[in-house]
């Protein structure tokens, strides 16, 4: 049976990196079908909606979407489309691997860690945001639930087990945020007891950032709440050479959306020089999610080999290749 996925080409550099990614996926001969749907600024300009019903319907039907970055129009009170998608499909786990690749001008060469970020609650959601009439006082509600904490920590431990990883670090600030972060830590400790085969340790978020910069090799899987995870995963992207190499999966029980961590990069859009690797690596996460782990490995190996050979590298990686040059080089290796 051929499988169909929803594909969102997105805004800015989105269409360029999506074309490159689909070219490489085609080279892997996966037999995948694509249903192209729109979201973001492009959808708004054409259809008058940032997130058309047909797009939601396609994600709902296929349960898997590969998505390029979207531009949320500034002003006009639009809320983030990405936050909206996570809410709609209850995509509670945001999984962001940070793995060292060759020739990426990064500080380290041996990083291999995964941040599992809770994606649906906490301060990041912006619940109850208020500014007093005089503009002097701003408030925000931070809600953490047992259910939300339990399912994300369980997800992290199950992921560690599935990937043969050894350690999960629970990142929190329970010493200060005693109720919210405190509940998260308490639940995490309970869940950890059910995984005696996986080592569990704890780190306070600020100290954790310092350790990540100084000695990142001590980390394996990190699990944390939404806002901390947002910050820590970008820090980790910085450890392995920046946003051009950072993929992310948004996973729920009914659907999963795979994307690059970076945005639509309007400064380089249309120039044909965007690095497609982050979206390609997200496609690799998608293949793993679909149980097509061999093909995911082949895809990652093709990227590694292409970087190693410095074949067609884009300017952000110090090369002078175009998105198309780079994609062609990776596709040739993926085809085997
Ligand atoms: P950005 O990630 O788009 O760009 C930051 C810098 O990194 C820019 O200099 C850009 O040229 C560079 N960059 C990003 N991706 C690159 C790639 N693949 N290859 C080479 N260079 C790359 O962040 P920015 O400028 O803050 O946001 C631009 C737009 O993207 C905004 O409208 C924002 O809302 C949206 N955005 C969308 C996201 C999504 O859909 N998941 C995530 C983050 C931002
Ligand atoms: Mg972020």
From TrEMBL:
Q: Which domain of life is it from?
A: Bacteria
Q: Which UniProt keywords apply?
A: Oxidoreductase
- Annotated ranges, domain Isopropylmalate dehydrogenase-like: 4-330
Q: State one molecular function term (GO).
A: isocitrate dehydrogenase (NAD+) activity
Record-linked Pfam families: Iso_dh
Give the signal peptide, or none.
Answer: none
EC number assigned by the record: 1.1.1.41
Output the InterPro entries linked to this UniProt entry.
Answer: IsoCit/isopropylmalate_DH_CS, IsoPropMal-DH-like_dom
PROSITE patterns for this protein: IDH_IMDH
SUPFAM superfamilies for the chain: Isocitrate/Isopropylmalate dehydrogenase-like
For biological process, the GO terms are:
isocitrate metabolic process; tricarboxylic acid cycle
Q: Which family does it belong to?
A: Belongs to the isocitrate and isopropylmalate dehydrogenases family.
Please give the PANTHER family that the UniProt record associates with this protein: DECARBOXYLATING DEHYDROGENASES-ISOCITRATE, ISOPROPYLMALATE, TARTRATE, ISOCITRATE DEHYDROGENASE [NAD] SUBUNIT ALPHA, MITOCHONDRIAL
The family database entries (NCBIfam families) matched by this protein are listed as: PRK08997.1 (NF006529)
The name under which this protein is listed is: Isocitrate dehydrogenase
Q: Please tell me the species this chain comes from.
A: Arenimonas fontis
């Amino acid at each position: 049976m051929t499988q169909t996925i929803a594909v969102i080409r997105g805004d800015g550099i989105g269409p360029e990196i999506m074309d490159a990614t689909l070219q490489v996926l085609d080279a892997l001969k996966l037999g995948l079908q694509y249903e192209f749907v729109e979201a973001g600024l492009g959808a708004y300009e054409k259809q008058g909606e940032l997130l058309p019903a047909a797009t939601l319907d396609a994600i709902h039907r296929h349960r898997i979407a590969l998505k390029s970055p979207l531009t949320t129009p500034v002003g006009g009170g639009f809320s983030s489309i990405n936050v909206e998608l996570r809410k709609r499909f209850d995509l509670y786990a945001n999984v962001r691997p940070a793995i060292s690749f060759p020739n990426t001008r990064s500080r380290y060469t041996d990083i291999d860690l995964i941040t599992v970020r809770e994606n649906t609650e906490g301060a990041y959601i912006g619940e109850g945001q208020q500014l007093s009439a005089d503009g002097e006082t701003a408030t925000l509600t931070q809600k953490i639930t047992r259910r939300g904490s339990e399912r994300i920590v369980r997800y992290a431990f199950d992921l560690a087990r599935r990937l043969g990883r050894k350690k999960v670090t629970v990142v929190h600030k329970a010493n200060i945020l005693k109720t919210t972060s405190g509940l998260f830590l308490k639940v995490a400790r309970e869940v950890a007891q059910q995984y005696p085969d996986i080592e569990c340790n704890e780190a306070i978020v600020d100290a954790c950032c310092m350790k990540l910069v100084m000695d990142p090799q001590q980390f394996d899987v990190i699990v944390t709440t939404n806002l901390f995870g947002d910050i820590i995963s970008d820090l980790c992207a910085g450890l392995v050479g920046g946003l051009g190499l950072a993929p992310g999966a948004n996973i729920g029980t009914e659907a999963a959306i795979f994307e690059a961590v970076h945005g639509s990069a309007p400064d380089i859009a249309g120039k044909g020089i965007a690095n497609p690797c982050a979206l390609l690596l997200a496609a690799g996460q998608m293949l793993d999610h679909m149980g097509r782990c061999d093909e995911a490995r082949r895809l990652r190996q093709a990227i590694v080999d292409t970087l190693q050979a410095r074949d067609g590298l884009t300017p952000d990686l110090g090369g002078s290749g175009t998105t198309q040059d780079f994609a062609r080089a990776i596709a040739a290796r993926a085809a085997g």
